[in-house]
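Duplicate of earlier report; Glycosyltransferase RgtA/B/C/D-like domain-containing protein input re-posted below.
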Amino acid sequence: MGPSSQQAGWRQNLIALCLLALLVFVLHGSALHANWRWDDGTHLFNTTQYTPWSVFLNPEVTRAASGNQFAPWNLFIYQLNSALFGMAPQAFYLHHLLSLALAAWALYLLLRQWLQPWRALLAPALLVAGVPAFHMAQQLMVGHYLDGLAFACLALWAQLRALERRQWRWAWLAAVLYLVSTLCKEVYVPWIALALFMPLGAATAPMPWLQRWRYALPALAVALGYAAVRVLVFSGAGGYQPSTLTGWHDVPGVLGAMARMLSQGLVGPGLLGLLATALCAACALAHLATQPPQARLKALAAFAAAITVVGFPLLFVARPGLDWQLHARLLWVPWAALCVLWCLPWPQRLARWHALALLVFIAAAGQQAWVQRQHDRPIEAMFDAHYGFALQPPAGQVLLPVQFNTPGYMAAVAMSALAARERMEPGRAHAHPALLHRWPADAGERARIRVWQEGCQCLAPLDTLPPAQQQAALHAQLDDQAIAAPLRQPLPYIANDWGGAIDAITTEGGVVHVRGWTPTLGAGRKLFLTGFAGVPPVTLEGVQRPDVASAHGRADMQDAGFHATLRFASPEAAQAAAASLCAVVAGQLPGQEHHFLMLPIEGGTRCQNALMPARTRPL
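Output:
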């Protein structure tokens, strides 16, 4: 390739980057007006706890950064952004959208090894216009998915360079890029299959399988090393939740759930979605028809590698009843695979049919993307409002946090952002929001309370709701709740500190009684019980503890005591649970609103391994 052709190639690449960036900002530019959302507050707080290098080099911090996935890059992005931009969410979102554009461009660069520019541009254009992109562009906490795709595509691009030029330096570069992609998100670990089975580029001379696989040895070494470190960091292969795939008997149900999630999540249910799904299968067959008979075996191997990349990670998360709209990020890699599928050539005689089928696919995917946006907008507005109240509390108003995702979650993440800002800006005074912790005594107090309302998608006065809805909102916040959390052993990091106490755990047949007290203001205790198998029925009663109120000098802690009852199927199950039980409560006292607190058991430290590790960043 001469200098002029190289110059033209890079000019085309630059044009593609500009077009993809323009498309990203046209479709997703509204994210630049967003506030913090979802886990942003927790990640921001953790940036003030841990140094960037400890996230990668300290196994305890690595595990704490993302307890159910091996993804240290996620917290690193927040650390980088907070170092550059402080607490300015708009700058974070600008970086986030640029990451989306760069991920799409990396996919374009990879596809250019086989396809003409216009055809190679089709896949990344579809990528940024699908359900996962519309969902993920509005969530900072999934930025590592975007960076991971960029690094994974560049790793394959470098691998092709190694094969084309027979140079080991490109193979080592591919291994480094692949390593970074795996540190971004575990869904990119199976991409090693693509490095082994992807077709050679147009400029690459044919070579035997074993000879080309030699250049994949550095990446294979990374994959093996990753597996060893992953098991070491997590003391096994699992994360927060037990896997839905526990044996061969689960395979049909998991595969059925996966098929529904992919089809309905990406192109929607109904006739149009079914037609689009069928056309995807026809697209794969049509591309195989373009291959000469002697090359079809290699093409089938490449398809099998792609199916492995798409399907393997989903085997451990797909389950009947999964709300894929809340977890559309899980569809990111499958969507990228479908986008690549539609840019592959068909036989010339079917070119018009390809265009028609593509239009049907785009129509189905576009309609589903619109459905996803309607689903996401109220949730995004809800987070924007709660974070906004926590960081800029209106004078004289009291926030009644909505109970979303997990009891106590919304208050914890919003107050974590406030705690992070206080640490980042120690010389400034920061107003603290008033959170609701007691029943309003009169109409005047009700008028001061702000609660999330779906109708206006805003925080509105509690007394503007119908009486029944007012009571329901108050009960959701102020009623005690006990939740049995099915977390696998060893427990992930689920608590920030010790607080309260469990005074006694006793069994009576198949019933476990847990008695103690929590550092709460008496109302709205959210208690999580975990460390045992199954999800037993749980009841919770408040108990008067004047001794606790006296010790803390707070009369509003009279009801700090509790009696929780868990009912198991057998005395043996109850006794096993009593021996391994741990309890965590959402913090309420001033300065603890962003914490989940572990209750020590009879003065012991049985559950201390579930506490977040000590901070590595100096005060």
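The chain has a mean pLDDT of 87.

Merging into the original ticket.
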